[in-house]
Amino acid sequence: MQKNSFFRIIISHLFVLSLLLASSTLDAECGDVSHIVPLPSAEAETVLSHWFMKKGYAVSQISVKDNRYSLAAVKKDKEWHITVTPYSPLASRISASLSDNGPSSQDELTALWEYLRLYSGDTDTKDTVAERSVPELILDKASSVVCIKGNINSKSLQFSGFILNNDGIIISTAHDLENARELTIVFSDGKETAGTVIKTDTYNDLSLISFDTAYESTIKLKNSRNILYNGEKVFTIGCPMNNRGKILSGLIDGNLRRVNSLHMWQAEIETLPGSSGSPVFDVTGNLVGVIKGSYRGTKSKGFIITMGAVIEFLSEL
Questions:
Q1: In terms of CB atoms within 10 Å, which of 118, 215, 221, 267 comes out highest?
Q2: Are 169 and 314 in contact (CB under 8 A)?
Q3: What's the domain count of the chain?
Q4: Mean pLDDT computed over every residue of the chain
Q5: Is position 127 within any domain?
Q6: Number of C-alpha atoms within 13 angstroms, CB side, residue 81?
Q7: Which tens digits make up the pLDDT trace of 52-88?
Q8: The domain containing residue 50 runs over which residues?
């Protein structure tokens, strides 16, 4: 009986192996490969589009239905067809089909899977994950983010903000700033200058702060989005606990929520004292909101002021 069981196990393993080999052969012959990656479908589509565009491809969205994306990427005589299908709320199956199955295309395909692997943090080297799981487009924004310190009625304050333009205008949150007039702005390189509150909106919890020092790095409002998706990955850069230039990542948790008559995004993201005013970005570096604060005193959930509220606030200047 034990001998028969042993042979059945061997035969079943050989059968599975033959199926895998047949599948690999079929993929190699038709240039059609699929992988499951630990990314929500909306984020996976954004990451793929950005990767192909950086490679010089013209990318077009063929269809979108039930979070299933079909893309085409074309460059000269080379054409890719990519399908992103939800596999779970936080994972997607990505299928890539190549019109040209030559060596250069296979090299590109290998590079694409490697990029997705590194981006999603699917690697055994923890230090590499910490460094490479933050896209370059997010790292580029760090020089435009500032720490803001002040004393109001003998109370020490510290929060975050980001520079909007070369005229020295910073946007941040408004809570605790009603009686503030002069503040200290700490730039990404550690240099400091005086700041002055020029406008507050306590309803939307937004403020504008000015400084006189010339500064080139800014965050462009034209590169912004107002609609986010459940499960979409986002990044913040700010000064939580006075930790200058701290980058944190998280996921959008559900649809827009109504909080004290305001619509806000809720995110599974670490939100600590000093995080308020931090800009929030999607994976391609588009500004998508501003951190308001944490959810009921927790550190793992945060509320994000929408870009619609930011644009409305700035339109009243």
A1: 267
A2: no
A3: 3
A4: 81
A5: no
A6: 7
A7: 887 888 988 887 777 788 999 998 878 999 999 998 8
A8: 32-119
